[in-house]
């Protein structure tokens, strides 16, 4: 599943194309992804974008009168290709630019989304989101407050969008390892000193993944069409039964909140 670093990589890849050329035509090849693609999307025809941002795992593609909101879902990927190139299977949404390039959204499982948000409007899905992990709004004082009433596992808490956005399963596992916190630790019982380390670790793993262009996803494709498979060194994720790089104990796997979690029982308490 594309996580925050893949979405940020996609944003960076799209930016030069969408800022340098006007939209010529919008083609909806498949009407309903996770939700129907609204017809208002075609109102961007003939216009030039004023910028593209990322909020959580949403891409916000801004025009003067509104925003195209896109989500990659479970299996979505964006590509920039020549508009003359034949469509591929599962290319459900396409924007052709006056430059002759085309942005294509490919999504075999169709859990992704392409939505329209009019100016002055905020879609429900963009409301009640927690802070961005890489901003100063996500800090130890904030996290301590946000966890104060959460009695579940710390791993589930940091994967909750209202607490902090964009910390997916891989990054949650890795950040907990780096901060020495067991994934099943009770969220509101983790000491402030340990939350300092956790905040730092979350920022570190995400920043590193963004710098490397994404994570170890087989089906993620970068906007230039190259496969986004990066052999980022993971300390615990996917390493059940292997030796901990830190202490040589065996990495364990446990299902927490229906997600596979990996940890070192010796390094993480
Ligand atoms: Zn260890």
Brief write-up:
This protein has 269 residues and is of the alpha+beta class.
Care to describe what's here?
The protein is 23% helix and 26% strand. The protein has a four-stranded antiparallel beta sheet, with helices on one face. A four-stranded antiparallel beta sheet has the order 2-3-4-8, covered by helices on one side. It has a two-stranded antiparallel ribbon with strand order 9-10. The relative contact order is 0.15. By secondary structure, it is an alpha+beta fold. The two termini are 28 Å apart. About 6% of the residues have low confidence. It contains five helices and twelve strands. The protein folds into two domains: 123 residues, MutM-like, N-terminal (N-terminal domain of MutM-like DNA repair proteins), CATH 3.20.190; 125 residues, Helicase, Ruva Protein, domain 3 (Orthogonal Bundle). The radius of gyration is 20 Å and the shape is elongated. Zinc ion binds next to loops.
| Whole-number count of domains | 2
Indicate the structural class: alpha+beta
Helix percentage: 10-25%
Q: How many β-strand runs?
A: 12
Q: Which second-level CATH architecture of the largest domain applies?
A: Orthogonal Bundle
Rg over C-alpha atoms, rounded to the nearest angstrom: 20 Å
State the separation between the terminal residues, measured CA to CA. 28 Å
Largest sheet: 4 strands, antiparallel
**CATH topology-level fold name of the largest domain:** Helicase, Ruva Protein, domain 3
Query: What low-confidence regions span 5 or more consecutive residues with pLDDT below 50?
Result: 215-221, 224-231
Q: Overall 3D geometry?
A: elongated
Number of helical runs? 5
Order of helices and strands: HEEEEEEEEHHHHEEEE
Enumerate the distinct ligands. zinc ion
Q: What is the strand content? A: 25-35%
Name the strands of the widest sheet in spatial order: 1-6-7-5
CATH top level label of the largest domain: Mainly Alpha
